[in-house]
């Protein structure tokens, strides 16, 4: 018989898992790490459990397969919760293995005892405690649930005396798990497709709003075919950047439920939310009067966005049906492109100082064609998401549903491992760099992960927008006419800090220094940090332009 830990690793391998991330304790996760090592499934030590979950989440989004992290009991589980919540709200399949007290103790010990299942219940799709008797069925069910739309995290509790014991139930250990998502893609519908005809056939100017549920390569191909065949423009959410490339003739910009996109949407007479999930949108009332229809792999809540109908099916099938029902549109795509360019130019006010939008533009000019980008929460996020061109799904990774700071660096680590290994989801040449765009507040929350990047010899380039402040919160305080309070971080010498971890470091006070730093970082075979000392005064104008 194989051990329960060996059984787990077999199921992870069959599911396409490439790495396990985490911070081990002294219990069952040691058995899991040992079994993974014997099966050549690498374990990556991170500095924090949150970073482990975020790195695993990034791999799940890129590869379309479960990401995996593990923690010790008690503080490890409480620490991982931020990363699990991020995966929950961004619909990412994540398997979270947590250690717990041995079954044989009967739960009599209070030390480090936290109700892990209750803690994680609001942010996971399912939770199970493994035993030698249920391990095989539990792993199949865990992977199945994580991968079923809407995808999300699953919690697997591993008592300290279980994983080293023989598995007593597995009879087909080498059979791959069957994902429920795979067998449901044949056109499962919530709505009779024929009832879409009256909504679509009369549309003269339909507009696609593409969201996180439409990020597979086949989804992107189907959307491109519909847009080209019917002359229909498409906007994307932050999570869907790259599904419609920025350079595509039908690209119409980024949709957030803000102000910047309103002039183009005002011209539409029908909105098609393709894989659109309301969790992606700004939490403000939906004020558009046009009919909106949802087409995606799972039903979504319609309390925020008043979908007139929902067609629940795989995206290629949905696009084929929509293409058959839509007439050729009356859109002038050249005019749409000119309008989009005008709106984007409003994000670039002139300045004699080094400012955020110029950092994004200079970095994109140097690296966008060869590098995936990760974006942290903060004021720099607005120029980054609007101005960085993306050409393929998941070419930009961002925490949107949770919008957590401290995301960009751990996500870049997960992405860089995929690029280094040429694993499924890699979109560039072998060992292509990954750019992490972060504010200094966000980097302070996870800067210890620079050591992870150094230890793994990853080509991660961290560009920190350094202004010694929580700039977005500062703007909001000033909008309410409050005095600045609790937003000044203090000066950090990021180059010295990066060098202390063993990363290459560069400082940029000017555009020319930034260009030189980028050239050196792109030529370096390990991690680099570029401290871009920016003038934050353009942030308020950028925020107002995008959100109103």
Brief digest:
The chain is 37% helix and 16% strand.
Report what the structure shows:
With 548 residues, the chain is an alpha/beta fold. The chain has three domains: 4-183, 3-Layer(aba) Sandwich (Rossmann fold), CATH 3.40.50.970; 193-342, Rossmann fold, CATH 3.40.50; 348-547, Thiamin diphosphate (ThDP)-binding fold, Pyr/PP domains (Rossmann fold, 3-Layer(aba) Sandwich). The protein contains 21 helices and 18 strands. The chain has helices spanning 4-14, 28-38, 49-63, 75-89, 116-120, 135-147, 180-183, 197-200, 217-230, 262-265, 315-325, 333-345, 356-367, 381-387, 408-421, 440-444, 449-455, 471-479, 494-501, 511-523, 539-547; strands at residues 20-23, 43-45, 67-71, 94-100, 127-129, 153-159, 206-210, 234-236, 251-254, 270-274, 291-296, 309-312, 372-375, 396-398, 434-439, 460-466, 504-508, 528-533. The radius of gyration is 24 Å and the shape is globular. It starts with a helix and ends with a helix.
Task: Summarize this structure as a short list of keywords or feature phrases.
21 helices; 6-stranded parallel beta sheet; Rossmann fold; 3 domains; 37% helix; 548 residues
What does the largest sheet look like? 6 strands, parallel
Contiguous helical run count: 21
| Approximate helicity band | 25-40%
Task: State the separation between the terminal residues, measured CA to CA.
Answer: 63 Å
Rg over alpha carbons: 24 Å
Q: Give the second-level CATH assignment, the architecture of the largest domain.
A: 3-Layer(aba) Sandwich
Assigned CATH superfamily of the largest domain: Thiamin diphosphate (ThDP)-binding fold, Pyr/PP domains
Strand order of the largest sheet: 2-1-3-4-6-5
